[in-house]
C-alpha cells in the first residue's frame, strides 16, 4: 500500500464569510503539521465562497494534483 506524501493545495478566499467559524484554515494547517503532512495554503484577497472563486482556481488544482499523483 502506498501513502500520499505530496503537498495538498488549498486556496482560501480572504473575504469568505465561513472562514473563521466553519472552515478554520489555521486549524487545518496545525493538523497537517502535527501529522507531518505537506499543505500549501494560498490566501486569495477579495474572494469569497462563491462559484466564481472556485472556477478561478480549479484548473490550477487539477494540474497540481495530477502532477502529484504521477
Any descriptors?
70 residues; alpha+beta
Task: Tell me what the structure shows.
- With 70 residues, this protein is of the alpha+beta class.
- The chain has one domain.
- The protein is built from 3 helices and 2 strands, in the order βααβα.
- The chain has helices at 19-23, 25-35, 51-68, and strands at 8-13, 39-44.
- A two-stranded parallel sheet has the order 1-2.
- The chain is flat.
- The model has no long low-confidence stretch (mean pLDDT 93).
Quick overview of this protein structure:
This protein has a two-stranded parallel ribbon with strand order 1-2. With 70 residues, the chain is α+β, with helices and mostly antiparallel strands.
Run of helices and strands: EHHEH
Main sheet, how many strands, which sense, barrel? 2 strands, parallel
Helical content class: 40-55%
Discrete helix count: 3
How would you state the average pLDDT, rounded? 93
Total discrete domains: 1
Strand order of the largest sheet: 1-2
Head-to-tail CA distance between termini? 15 Å
Our estimate of the beta-strand percent is: 15-25%
- Counted beta strands: 2
Could you say which overall geometry the principal axes of the C-alpha atoms support? Answer: flat
Radius of gyration, rounded?
13 Å
Low-confidence stretches: none
Itemize the secondary structure elements and their pairings.
Elements: E1 8-13, H1 19-23, H2 25-35, E2 39-44, H3 51-68
Parallel strand pairs: 1-2
Amino acid at each position: 500500500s502506498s501513502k500520499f506524501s505530496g503537498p495538498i493545495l488549498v486556496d482560501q478566499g480572504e473575504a469568505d464569510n465561513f472562514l473563521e467559524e466553519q472552515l478554520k484554515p489555521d486549524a487545518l494547517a496545525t493538523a497537517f503539521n502535527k501529522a507531518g503532512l505537506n499543505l500549501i495554503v494560498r490566501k486569495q484577497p477579495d474572494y469569497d465562497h462563491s462559484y466564481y472563486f472556485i472556477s478561478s482556481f480549479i484548473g490550477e488544482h487539477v494540474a497540481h494534483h495530477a502532477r502529484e499523483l504521477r
